[in-house]
Amino acid sequence: MSGNEQVATEPPGALAPPERHVEELERVVIRFVGDSGDGMQLTGSEFSRVIARAGNAFATHPDYPSEIRAPTGTLFGVSGFQIQFAANRVFTSGDAPDVLVAMNPAALKTNLGELARGSVLLVNSGAFTAANLARAGYASNPLEDGSLDSYRLIAVDISLLTARALAGSGLSKKEADRCKNYFALGLMLCLFGRPIEGEIADVAERFAHIPRFAEANVTALRAGYGFAEASELFASTFEVRAAPPQPGTYRSITGNQATALGFVAASELSATPLFLGSYPITPATDILHELTTLRNFNITTFQAEDEIAGICSAIGAAWGGHLALTTTSGPGMALKTEALGLVTMLELPLVIVNVQRAGPSTGLPTKTEQADLLQALYGRHGECPIPVIAARSPADCFDAALEACRIAVKYMTPVILLTDGGIANAAEPWRVPDVASLPRIEVKYRTEADGFAPYARDEFLARPWVTPGTPGMEHRIGGLEKDFLSGNLSHDAQNHQRMVEVRAAKVAGIAAELPPLVVDGPDAGELLVVGWGSTWGAIAEARRQAEAAGIAVAHLHLRHLNPLPADLDEILARYRTILVPELNLGQLSRLLRERCLREVQTLHKVQGRPFRVSEILARIKAISAGAEHE
Amino acid sequence: MSGNEQVATEPPGALAPPERHVEELERVVIRFVGDSGDGMQLTGSEFSRVIARAGNAFATHPDYPSEIRAPTGTLFGVSGFQIQFAANRVFTSGDAPDVLVAMNPAALKTNLGELARGSVLLVNSGAFTAANLARAGYASNPLEDGSLDSYRLIAVDISLLTARALAGSGLSKKEADRCKNYFALGLMLCLFGRPIEGEIADVAERFAHIPRFAEANVTALRAGYGFAEASELFASTFEVRAAPPQPGTYRSITGNQATALGFVAASELSATPLFLGSYPITPATDILHELTTLRNFNITTFQAEDEIAGICSAIGAAWGGHLALTTTSGPGMALKTEALGLVTMLELPLVIVNVQRAGPSTGLPTKTEQADLLQALYGRHGECPIPVIAARSPADCFDAALEACRIAVKYMTPVILLTDGGIANAAEPWRVPDVASLPRIEVKYRTEADGFAPYARDEFLARPWVTPGTPGMEHRIGGLEKDFLSGNLSHDAQNHQRMVEVRAAKVAGIAAELPPLVVDGPDAGELLVVGWGSTWGAIAEARRQAEAAGIAVAHLHLRHLNPLPADLDEILARYRTILVPELNLGQLSRLLRERCLREVQTLHKVQGRPFRVSEILARIKAISAGAEHE
Amino acid sequence: MNDRLDCSKESVAVSLTRKDFESEQDVRWCPGCGDYSLLAQIQKLLPQLGIARENFAFVSGIGCSSRFPYYMDTYGMHAIHGRAPAVASGLKLARPELSVWVVTGDGDALAIGGNHFIHAIRRNIGLKIVLLNNRIYGLTKGQFSPTTELGEKTKTSPYGNIDRPFSAAALALGAGATFVARVVDTDLAQLGPILARAAAHPGTAFVEVLQNCIVFNDGAYAALTDKKQRDELRLVLEHGQPLRFGSNGERGIRLAGLRPEIVSVAGAPGVPEGEGVALSELAVHDESDPHGSLAFLLAQFAAPEFPLPLGIFRAVAAPAFEDMNAAIEDTARQQRGAGDLASLLAGGDTWTVA
Amino acid sequence: MNDRLDCSKESVAVSLTRKDFESEQDVRWCPGCGDYSLLAQIQKLLPQLGIARENFAFVSGIGCSSRFPYYMDTYGMHAIHGRAPAVASGLKLARPELSVWVVTGDGDALAIGGNHFIHAIRRNIGLKIVLLNNRIYGLTKGQFSPTTELGEKTKTSPYGNIDRPFSAAALALGAGATFVARVVDTDLAQLGPILARAAAHPGTAFVEVLQNCIVFNDGAYAALTDKKQRDELRLVLEHGQPLRFGSNGERGIRLAGLRPEIVSVAGAPGVPEGEGVALSELAVHDESDPHGSLAFLLAQFAAPEFPLPLGIFRAVAAPAFEDMNAAIEDTARQQRGAGDLASLLAGGDTWTVA
Ligand SMILES: Cc1ncc(C[n+]2csc(CCOP(=O)(O)OP(=O)(O)O)c2C)c(N)n1
Ligand SMILES: Cc1ncc(C[n+]2csc(CCOP(=O)(O)OP(=O)(O)O)c2C)c(N)n1
Ligand code: SF4
Ligand code: SF4
Ligand SMILES: [Mg+2]
Ligand SMILES: [Mg+2]
């Protein structure tokens, strides 16, 4: 495939090279971009599915506007979906795309900047009308003015070809036009040499309730595929071999789905009913959607009037013996902090999920960030210790949710689980675990009245869980300071000190049972990259690439942010330089500085976007180069 | 005055020593304790007034139950008032009392533990009835069972003597009994050799609206004084010389009063109307009370439906060009955090006062603590920097309020002002400042439309203050991320990073203009005690006492907690040991560790009470002893 | 501990007494506070309900009134300011078999907690909400509340209150309340029976108790409790009965269209012969009026124009939220089968690697 | 910039046009969203009010509807979810001369913001609150809201909604509203005049706009806007006029006591001779009913039993909060004299050291 190819509605002529060949690639990044109405999210996930079925590893990242349906053709109405796939383990959805599929001028304009020269640019030329060009602010048509010369441009009038393919289908012009994303999908499947049969079956199923759309979409898909093949549209097609991963059943899963499933599993594994009190907020709402649908399980979901009622209802349910949750994002988290104080005093189990988004205030609601870490640790009045854990990838949300529940019920404590918009909506393959292999979560309600004291503690400093309805143990709890044993309110000075200390000790004590930290890479040396949460993929990949480039670098990723693991100091001490990449201004960095009293380098990014691997890699290289120069 | 004196209703006999003499003291701590209904707060403040008038320095500390009117005679219904006075500068209300005035058995029981052996114990023996003893849980009468032998006990049947003095006054028995606090006051004035004329005039004035009470209280006061004198009740009386302080007009002021006056002054000095949006909460409510009464100034107070509306209404008023405030305490602070994010985005001036109380949750609402520091710094989602300052003493609240307003309007930013229950209700003498000497606060609303951009910044990175109603500059602001100049909403990735950074830089930049830190004591050496907020008095006094005992120790007290002053690192580096006493589990300690990457020793106390000087002194001595042993 | 264990479900109907509901904690309200009366009435009522002691839960917010749960020897939670209805809603959804009570104040329920109050009522969730309305913030020592009357001087309205008060009953009706009652703290004749009706009501039952705060708002209801005046000032509501008041029922409410007017009742003692209107012309109280407009009208009545209505304004049947919630689970199971974790995890689109 | 400066107070009455109120920002609602209609009507109304452009302030919370201020070339604040009435209250108190508007949604005003909504109304502070009620959370993509009807399937009620909806009008009335109106987004004949009335009302004016969300709740009001059906389904309120509906006004509302019933109007087209009741028997709409009970009754009307009332439910005069607030300052100055800082600082009990 060479230079600049211009293809209109007919099979390519002179410009097409005489022979097609197959380029084999280790990994590929594709970005689908178009108008919000162009169905790019659907195209992207359908494509992922095909990829997944073939046994490739992948990671995806959707990027859509905060407007529900922005006016057609505008720059702010552009919706995107990026996927990286490879033979084996894929850590991120990729930095810059290798292939950009742009469905209109606005999409081209907003995304071209990230496309490396020489990459494949597939464009729906039919959308490059005067009106659309104007809306996108193009003075001249980039398909014609030579400004795209340095890309491998393939311009196809997808609009027209789709319309032609559907002529006679009985669909209105507008309806037919909506099928063009399947035409584009067809093109891409051809480009990557994937069969379309599975996808055809899927489309048929997905649109089963509206048969004429099912049919039309299948037609468009076939037309796209057929057109690409017949026209020899692509000078070369690509192949990304699949190296089968660990045997098992796989599915694609987003972070929000995995979080929801983790909670269902926790409920089943502890034989404890689940209660979710929540108020919708982007990007956390999908967890509520998911669990609301699963009411055939032992689950109650309650859409409260606000976030305060969300957490308070969950506290009521926790008191009533349910495995209680509340899910939210930044602004909602702010509203829950008073109740977090209450539940810390009550010492009832509760999991609070904060799917972080870009702040402060309303910020950039659909964009990602990791800037709520210090809030999770310190965002309450008084000494109010709460365990904090974070998930590192979409699939990891499942394990993180289980871990949060485990700590909550074992220690009778609220637990904050941090995920973020980046992993919440991104998807990756997940090996479906065998239920029998999942660890049970032990829940014991106390029913024995003899010797009962509401605030007597076990060896983990947890108090007993006694639910209303249990005979013989009626007692009162509340947010005022309470007596060390009876839980009755106490104004005693020494008692207050003792209670403040025991609450702190209980949470600090969790560190004692955490498994040893695992470092990827050399276990001592020049550089340790420490991360938490969703930066995992980018750091892991950067480390891999650095290693491949001959730079020894280690990577430590923290699940537990409060308490920090006991062996942390010792591990950090083994490296000369500590680098902490974060999607904030350096919050974990502060914790590490405070904890270990040593310099750490921060790499921060606050752009509403995940790290690119290259950004981390560049810093690793710079540090490594600097070290050599010393 | 010797041993154990038992005095009933008659002048003392055999046990009284033959001669009275005057003991001269440098400083004295008196604690008045009694039932909530016994009027101890009033007695205490009246006594302070007499002390003040004589030119003594003093500091007071009230300590009352959270119940409004607890049942008579119960342990939890005990109300106390402590005063320390001295010739010159008094830093705290004192550790253990030298004189304890106990009006009933419950008061004796709850306070005796803090009285050093050999101290004076003045007791109203008339209240030691069987019923009251039982309510206080005394098996036998401590006045009779010898358990008080090691104190200088003076038992006076104040109840009976007051009743006798008021026989024929026409007051009911109950009414007459309420005057016994004035009888006690009379006793104390005699003990300390103070004239009662001024007080008599005051009582007359205070009760002017109920003349029969005015008269009765004066009678009781005289009776108490006369009884003590005539009966030669006290073997010796005490004298605490007054060393006149700086010339000027003085008044007694509590922290909440000073805070309120500081804001009125800021409003007058900036010629900007004041707006307070608030919701009542202990111990902050008095600021609202105070300002509500002062509506003859250019002040609007708005008692909102909750804390969220309190701050949001203040945001609205700030937008409208008012010098806007919201006042609250811990739980209310928690509720304001979402709106703090908004106002950080809006970049409007706003002062948020958190009168800290013991937490977490409802905690101990009437008790003090300093555990909201990290919340003030980090308690918001996203990167949301807000300047934080703290007041160190009741009178200092005035200056701190002025400083908060100055920063808010200069930098167009919210500012958090931390005080606490300890200083909010405590009183000390305050030299009334000359209004002309107070610094003006410059407020400029922009009215010039030419070249206007809502988020253009001046050299301090502050944006212009344009209030609705100004022609030609209509624009929109909000909580979504905004364009660097126009303030219109912007989803641009780089713009977000730039805005996050500029907001951080603006707040960090305040450090540049802070005056050099002042260290009390040696400017380098073994030990520096670093404090913030209300611990100032106890640390300063401990330092003074250490110095007197030959231990060189320095004291640095921080007004600015965010940003920390620029010269902090350099100062800390000059001392081998840093000790940070805090009424929390070590929050400033964390900030210092993180900032300076060095060990600091923490001395923490979380008992709902201020530090005792002795607690800090002991630690200073231990450190000094340890250093010698090294 | 042993006598406590007596109170198991089986033995409850016979064995419980008022004493069983008194906790060991000293009651810490001011002597003479109206809250004592409610406490006594509730402690008297509960043993009569045939519910095991452990199945009662009292939830409160913050305020003098909100100390209530401490004094009940039942399960209790003294939560945070204004949030009791939300906590209680979670508990009730989790454990619908419990008898869940919310005890709150005018500040707690109507100031900071206004939103949860109206939403609990809107949903008609099975909570008994008892609001001790002393028209003042007691615990924080005397600021005006959302029910303080216009012009009242309080610590935060030294020049007279300018915040128009809510009618708690009107607000509840506006939110769709299915049970609304109002009663004076010391009126034992009404208090007990109304609480009993509230306890039996499915869905949210709201009872406003006019409670005297002797410290910060003493005498707010003095006229209503004063035997000499009260009959002229209060209108006792009885379902199916004409709206009459006065010591001899000599006055009543007639509706001209929707506008109420006070009339004399012909033939009643003290009404001159030939004067007054026939009893049959008076409006008749109807708790079950489907649109609640009579209740709403009555909820607007206030001195000095009208006597203050006391009793049950409204009591209508509507599905309780917790029952509808339980039904969802059935629907879900019908539609999707009982939940099975293994197939859920393997759900969606899977592929297998051998 | 120059033509902007034209809009000073003096020139306003003559010079402002609709265009002057259009901001430079692209409107980002979905094509066909009902919000556009309100925007157009407001932009049309404001130039007619004789108020300088700079004296308008629009405050909103979060939601599709809450994007409103961005599109108005007035002062505007897009605040946080649910809190617009509180922000606006502060602004109005600080600057009573401004015309302050709150634009909100059913989620923003009635879910998270319910408390501020009822308290603004209770105080009767001079805000114009316009609620775009699409019975759904639009911005978060389709969860049920506090006005979603029972049984509706949404993203968070896949088995049918079990939360009973508020009647926004009833809630406002319960909170003591002095001005309550309801109008359909596309009904330009009603929308403009009602907004004008709201703008002129002293105190809180509440206007509920039934707004179609074409993406997540399309057709929620289809029947009401459908020319063929709407006359049967809506009841247009006109002060002083009998409550009639139907395409020929052939049906009406009669009150039997307080219970409403639908009757045919004798003599109206389509009503058979000798059938129906006399026009004079119909209830007559009265915006100014002091107790608001007719308004409350109408606020309960809902399909299918009754036609949906549209128009002004209530409009009564009551002192505006900001005016009472201003009066406090006078009282305080009368009682204490104008504030003087020096004597304030030296106030209380002072002593002098020479
Ligand atoms: C978040 C929060 N804000 C404020 C307070 C302070 N506060 C406690 S009780 C109360 C008012 C109580 O009034 P009400 O509910 O009428 O109770 P009452 O004391 O009159 O019975 C207030 C403002 C608090 N505890 N928490
Ligand atoms: C504190 C907080 N909670 C939740 C959200 C998420 N959120 C934004 S708008 C909205 C609902 C909006 O519904 P409505 O007011 O009806 O507006 P519409 O979009 O329907 O016009 C929610 C839940 C938020 N932005 N902030
Ligand atoms: S302050 Fe009032 S409400 Fe509170 S306990 Fe005392 S009397 Fe009761
Ligand atoms: S989602 Fe609905 S309410 Fe929101 S802009 Fe689109 S049509 Fe309007
Ligand atoms: Mg009250
Ligand atoms: Mg809506």
UniProtKB/TrEMBL annotation, chains A, B:
Domain of life according to the entry: Bacteria
Entries under InterPro entries matching the protein: 2-oxoacid/accept_OxRdtase_asu, Pyruvate:ferred/Flavod_OxRd, Pyrv/ketoisovalerate_OxRed_cat, Pyrv_Fd/Flavodoxin_OxRdtase_N, Pyrv_flavodox_OxRed_cen, THDP-binding, Transketo_C/PFOR_II
Pfam families from the UniProt entry: POR (PF01558), POR_N (PF01855)
Keywords: Oxidoreductase
Domain Pyruvate flavodoxin/ferredoxin oxidoreductase pyrimidine binding, first and last residues per copy: 271-481
Top EC class of this enzyme: oxidoreductase
E.C. number: 1.2.7.11, 1.2.7.3
CDD domains for the chain: TPP_PYR_PFOR_IOR-alpha_like
Domain Pyruvate/ketoisovalerate oxidoreductase catalytic: 37-225
SUPFAM superfamilies associated with the record: Pyruvate-ferredoxin oxidoreductase, PFOR, domain III, Thiamin diphosphate-binding fold (THDP-binding), TK C-terminal domain-like
Stretches that traverse the bilayer: none
One GO BP annotation of this record: response to oxidative stress
MF term (GO), any: 2-oxoglutarate synthase activity
Alphabetized PANTHER family for the sequence: 2-OXOGLUTARATE OXIDOREDUCTASE SUBUNIT KORA, PYRUVATE-FLAVODOXIN OXIDOREDUCTASE-RELATED
NCBIfam families documented for this protein: OAFO_sf (TIGR03710)
Protein name (database record): 2-oxoglutarate ferredoxin oxidoreductase subunit alpha
Native organism: Rhodocyclus tenuis (Rhodospirillum tenue)
From TrEMBL, chains C, D:
Gene Ontology MF term list: 2-oxoglutarate synthase activity; thiamine pyrophosphate binding
TM region(s), chain numbering: none
Record GO biological process: cellular respiration; small molecule metabolic process
EC number: 1.2.7.11, 1.2.7.3
Presence of keyword Transmembrane helix: no
InterPro entries xrefs: 2-oxoacid:Fd_oxidoreductase, THDP-binding, TPP_enzyme_TPP-bd
Domain of life: Bacteria
Alphabetized UniProt keyword annotations: Oxidoreductase
Keyword Oxidoreductase: yes
SUPFAM superfamilies, per database record: Thiamin diphosphate-binding fold (THDP-binding)
Domain Thiamine pyrophosphate enzyme TPP-binding span(s) in chain numbering: 62-209
Top-level class of the enzyme under EC nomenclature: oxidoreductase
A UniProt-annotated Pfam family: TPP_enzyme_C
PANTHER family: 2-OXOGLUTARATE OXIDOREDUCTASE SUBUNIT KORB (PTHR48084:SF4), 2-OXOGLUTARATE OXIDOREDUCTASE SUBUNIT KORB-RELATED (PTHR48084)
Protein name: 2-oxoglutarate ferredoxin oxidoreductase subunit beta
